[in-house]
Write a structure and sequence with these properties.
- Helices cover about 40% and strands about 15% of the residues.
- It is globular, with a radius of gyration of 22 Å.
- It has one domain: Inosine-uridine Nucleoside N-ribohydrolase, Chain A (Alpha-Beta Complex), CATH 3.90.245.
- With about 350 residues, it is α/β, with parallel strands linked by helices.
- Helix 3 links the parallel strand 2 and strand 3.
- The chain has an 8-stranded mixed sheet with strand order 3-2-1-6-7-8-12-9, sandwiched between helices. Strands 4-5 form a two-stranded antiparallel sheet. Strands 10-11 form a two-stranded antiparallel ribbon.
């Protein structure tokens, strides 16, 4: 009798442990977030840090980068993105480039032309931005091929590409127009743009991603569908979480040449802690539930004719603003440093 009871209790324990393990596995299994990264990667170096973060998050199984679209015009922008993607083992990612937006010179895009001997230091296939398809074509195709309500778009630059997407009609890629395609396929747009309070001793600040493309940002803010949430990381958030210069000095030395480190040095030099505007939009988009940020009440973002942004609270509003406490800022700085400098997976032979 005691023997049968012991066997029974052992079986119950095994079954119980199996249930716990199954529940734990289920609770800890998350599908990677499918991401389109829309960037004005020409001027500031934070776009490059943000792209490195996305590759690190994909190596961790947290996101899947579906495409990169470029919202400023420079002949080396698409080749540079191709070089970064190739460095991280994803040289076949679709890249789209706008043909009609602000033309921007760059301190660092020339890195993609650097050679060691006869070979590119950072290999890539695209040689000119005009060799890439248009950004709107890549956006439409990536959205059309995605599952419904799955895509997260991270827009960290001019709104040119999304504004133009919203004005497209049905075509051979999809019978849906741009508004309906975005409504059907996109679950979140994470935007770095605007300034929604006083800063730099001024009551209002004309933030660059808005004023360098006012018409596009106004079209995006006005026409983006109400049922696709938009979360805005404003200028003051990135200012509050600067990237530590000691990371550039220390964290990228696992290879003789690193494109992120060289980009940062060409843009900001070794003695500057650069604000991480674009990185914050990436962090929220991929890890929205990790409490790095808070969110404002719902409302609506309005862009005026001079490029100033305002937020009007509304119970059923599409838009929210990122908020951040000083304690959260400490966590954000550390995690952004760790992700941006994480070695590519293929360097470990995986």
């Amino acid at each position: 009798m005691l023997r049968r009871l012991s066997v029974f209790l052992f079986a119950v324990a095994v079954i119980g442990c199996s249930v716990v393990v199954a529940e734990t596995k289920s609770a800890s299994t998350f599908d990677p977030v499918p991401v389109i990264f829309d960037t004005d990667i020409t001027g500031d170096c934070d776009d490059v840090l943000a792209l490195a973060m996305l590759h690190a998050l994909q190596d961790r199984g947290e996101c899947e980068l579906k495409a990169v679209t470029i919202s400023k015009v420079n002949p080396l922008a698409a080749p540079f993105v191709d070089a970064i993607n190739t460095f991280y083992g994803r040289g076949d990612l679709p890249i789209g480039a706008t043909r009609e937006a602000q033309r921007r010179e760059s301190l660092y895009l020339k890195l993609c032309k650097t050679r060691d001997g006869n070979d590119f230091r950072y290999p890539h296939d695209l040689l000119r931005s005009d060799d890439a398809p248009t950004a709107v074509e890549v956006l439409r195709r990536t959205l059309a091929e995605a599952e419904d309500a799955s895509i997260v778009i991270i827009q960290v630059g001019l709104a040119t590409n999304l504004a133009d997407l919203l004005e497209t009609k049905g075509d051979d890629i999809s019978p849906l127009d741009g508004v309906d395609l975005l409504r059907k396929k996109c679950k979140l747009i994470s935007v770095m743009a605007g300034c929604f309070g006083p800063t730099l001793g001024k009551p209002r600040h004309d933030e660059a991603n808005v004023v360098n493309g006012i018409d596009a940002m106004r079209r995006f803010a006005e026409r983006s569908p109400d049922d696709v949430p938009v979360v805005w990381s404003d200028y003051r958030i990135g200012i509050a979480v600067p990237y530590p210069r000691e990371s550039i000095a220390r964290d990228y030395s696992y290879v003789p040449h690193h494109p992120v480190r060289e980009t940062y040095l060409l843009h900001s030099g070794p003695n500057h802690d650069r604000p991480t505007w674009d990185l914050t939009s990436v962090l929220y988009a991929v890890r929205p539930n990790d409490h790095y940020f808070g969110l404002s009440q719902p409302g609506r973002v309005v862009v005026d004719e001079k490029g100033f942004t305002e937020f009007h609270p509304h119970a059923n509003g599409r838009d929210r603003l990122l908020e951040m406490t000083p304690e959260q800022a400490i966590r954000v700085i550390e995690v952004q440093r760790a992700l941006s400098s994480q070695p590519p997976r293929q360097l470990n032979g995986n």
